[in-house]
Amino acid sequence: xxxxxxxxxxxxxxxxxxxxxxxxxxxxxxxxxxxxxxxxxxxxxxxxxxxxxxxxxxxxxxxxxxxxxxxxxxxxxxxxxxxxxxxxxxxxxxxxxxxxxxxxxxxxxxxxxxxxxxxxxxxxxxxxxxxxxxxxxxxxxxxxxxxxxxxxxxxxxxxxxxxxxxxxxxxxxxxxxxxxxxxxxxxxxxxxxxxxxxxxxxxxxxxxxxxxxxxxxxxxxxxxxxxxxxxxxxxxxxxxxxxxxxxxxxxxxxxxxxxxxxxxxxxxxxxxxxxxxxxxxxxxxxxxxxxxxxxxxxxxxxxxxxxxxxxxxxxxxxxxxxxxxxxxxxxxxxxxxxxxxxxxxxxxxxxxxxxxxxxxxxxxxxxxxxxxxxxxxxxxxxxxxxxxxxxxxxxxxxxxxxxxxxxxxxxxxxxxxxx
Length: 419
Fold this sequence. Notes:
Blueprint: E1 9-13, H1 21-31, E2 35-39, E3 53-55, H2 61-74, E4 77-82, H3 88-98, H4 105-112, H5 114-123, E5 131-135, H6 141-146, E6 151-155, E7 165-167, H7 170-186, E8 198-203, E9 208-217, E10 220-228, E11 242-245, H8 251-268, E12 273-282, E13 285-292, H9 312-321, E14 334-340, E15 346-352, H10 354-358, E16 363-368, E17 375-376, E18 387-393, H11 396-408, E19 411-415
Parallel strand pairs: 1-2, 1-4, 2-3
Antiparallel strand pairs: 5-8, 6-7, 6-8, 9-10, 9-12, 11-14, 12-13, 14-18, 15-17, 15-19, 16-18
């Protein structure tokens, strides 16, 4: 006999700061799925939406779970999907409470808390940088003297390269530590575990960085896409710019990246759903830097297309709803995205050259995501990009050239005067 959940709704947990709502809702409409959006921001139309938009507590997991349980009594849920890292713990805890498919809560916490993640990888014997854990209340002088330089300091519970700083000597270590402390005091953290007060010190791993987009099904990893990051990410900050697929690395190296990612996921205990992994490749091996139980961030997923035209969001929704996946093969055409970096702090006054950039052969779209008049905050304090440039071409080299040329044609006027 079917349970009340068999034909229930899919609940998408989407923070108000997310870029992803529009694309997931478009994919849901394409599938004709019954989907509701849960956010930490109350919609003005919530009372008229028949439960399709609802506010939940993202700050306190226990409260959020109770609210979702109450929602389920009125609108039975078939699955709960986290769209951004901020909501992965809440999604899995609520799914567990309701008896819905879910990853282990401990596995999810290991993807959110970078120290738990790093120690698990080291324990498993996978290639890994060494790690030391400090708190924001520690005196950084002694660890700065003992560090094996170069090192990377990073908050244990922030994402998107926010607060990640390289240090090559003692003075840089102390300055980076103090800067991260200020960032953590200012950050609107949804993570409430011990990691919110922790700063990690890892030995710097040289080499090329790549990103793997995958889907876990009963513990088996399907590689959906492997992105090269052509711009060197050597610090002092680690602002990502170009993502280009397919990878230009040798097939043997690509297979090793996939195998290493699968081992890391198994070590963490992840078994189901989308995964996004960041890795470094050098002569000593493949190093897993981070893993997220989510899809790629920002609008970057728009550069991916599968089978007969499926988006990454449609694949993820099909999996969550138990629907058939016609194909997980990425299109043959090379594609890529540039996350437009913020050149300096200030107020965005104007953007020019968008139409000119769109005329570059291979460019699919240029999207400026920060409105005119908004304050721009670069890394390591900031956590947003100016926008995104998308391209497709016959080869990865052509995609990279198109993205760089389109970016060259854009001009941003930024006022640095204090108001």
